[in-house]
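Feature request, filed as a ticket because there's no other form

It would be nice if the structure record came with a short human-readable summary line next to the C-alpha cells. Right now we just get the raw output. Example of a typical job, pasted below so the devs can see what we mean:
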Amino acid sequence: MNTTDDEDPDHINRAPPTVALQTVGCKLNQAESESLACRFRGAGFGVVAPDQDPDVYILNTCTVTHIADRKCRHHLRSFRRANPRALVLATGCYVERDAAGVHIEGVDLAVGNTDKDRLVEIVTGRLENRVRRPLAVSGHGSRIPDTTFNGYEAQLFRTRSLVKVQDGCNQCCSYCIVPHVRGQERSVPAEQVVTEVKDRASRGYQEVVLTGTRIGAYKGGLAGLVRQILDDTAIPRLRLSSLQPGELPTSFIELWSDNGRICRHLHLALQSGSDSVLKRMGRGYCTGEYEETVNLVRDGMPDVAITTDVIVGFPGESEKEFEESYRFCERIGFAGLHIFPYSARPGTPASRMPGKVPEKIKKSRSRIMIELAGRSVRDFRRRFSGQTMPVLWEERKGEGLWVGHTGNYIKVITRSVESLRGYLLETKLGGGYEDALWGDI
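Raw output as currently delivered:
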C-alpha cells in the first residue's frame, strides 16, 4: 500500500529549510531584503542569522564604490568557508555589474536585479527535494511585539520599515554606476505602496520610510503618493529617503510643514559644494539652487534636519574647489553629512577623466570633512536640548540603555529596565551623551 506524504514520518519530522539574508548598501537594498525575508517566511522558510548554519545564504550586493565591492566579496568568501554545503546566492547591483567575478567567490547562483523578485521561486526550485511548511506570521497592536520575529529577524526588520516605491534612474551622473545596474526609472503603483504601508501599520510598525533609487521621480508625483498614504493609512510616522534639489515643489513643502506625521528630516543629495565640480559630475544644479531649496524648506520647517552626501577627491578637484565645498557645507549647517572618497566605477565617464586625486589627499580631505560633520551634528542636536519630542525607541545599547530617534533624526539615549523596542514615546531631551542627547521619557 502506498503512503502519502502526510503519512510519511520522515516528512512529518523534517524541519523547514532556513535562509539567511545579508545586505550591503543603500536603503533600497535594505527595503528589498526586508520584503524578501517576509516572502521567504511566508513560503515556509525559517529566517535566521548567517552564523546559524542556514540551508540558503543570500547576499544582497552593492557596487556603488570599490569598498562596497570588497565587502561583498568578503561576505561571500567568509560564508562559503564556514558553510561549504549551503546554497550560496548573490543578488543585486554587484551581480549586475560583474556576475562572473561573483562566481569566483564560491557562489552557486547569481541573480540580477531584474529577477530579484523571483528569488523565493528560484531558491525553492533548487531545494525542491526539501519540504516546506508555512510559518505563522503574527503581531498586531500599538508596537512591534517582541514575539513577532526571532532575535535575528528583529535586527533585520528593525523598528522602522522600509517600503520601496521606485527603482532605476534616468539621470546619468558622470561618476555613478547605478543607472547601469538598476536600469530606467519605474514606479511601484500607488495602490501597492498603500497596501504595503497598511500591512506595516497592522503589524505594529510606528514608522515607514519610503525609499527608491530616486523617489523624487515617482510617476504621478511624490506629493500625491504621500497624501494618499496619509489619507488611507494609520501609520504614525512617514519618512522620506534621499531627494534632490528641484524635486521639492512648494506644494510639497506645505504638505510637509502642515502634517506632523511626516518626519521633518530631508536627506538632500549635494555631492559637492563647488559649482565647477558639480558641473563635471553632471548633477544638473548649482550651489545657489541647492541653497535656495534649503532656505525654502527651513522657512516652512525651522526644526527640519537636513542631511546630505559629499564626495571628496573627485577627478580634477583642486585645493580651491575642495575649500569651496568645505565652506559651502559649513555655511549650510547640515544636521549630518556622509563623506565618501571618490571611487572610480568601471565604464562611467568620470573613470576616464584626467586629474586623478592621490589616495593620500583623498584621505586627508575626508578627515577634514568628517571633523566638520561631527561639529555640525553636535550644533544641530544642541538646539533641541530641553524640548519634548516623540522618540521611536529602537535598540538596546549596553546594560539598561536604549537608543532611539526623533522625527528629525536626533539620536537619543535613555535608561530602562523594560524593553522599549518599537515604542513611540514623548521624551524630554537633555544634554549631550556620547554621540546623542540624553532623554527622559
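Something like this underneath would help us a lot:
The radius of gyration is 23 Å.
The longest strand covers residues 424-433.
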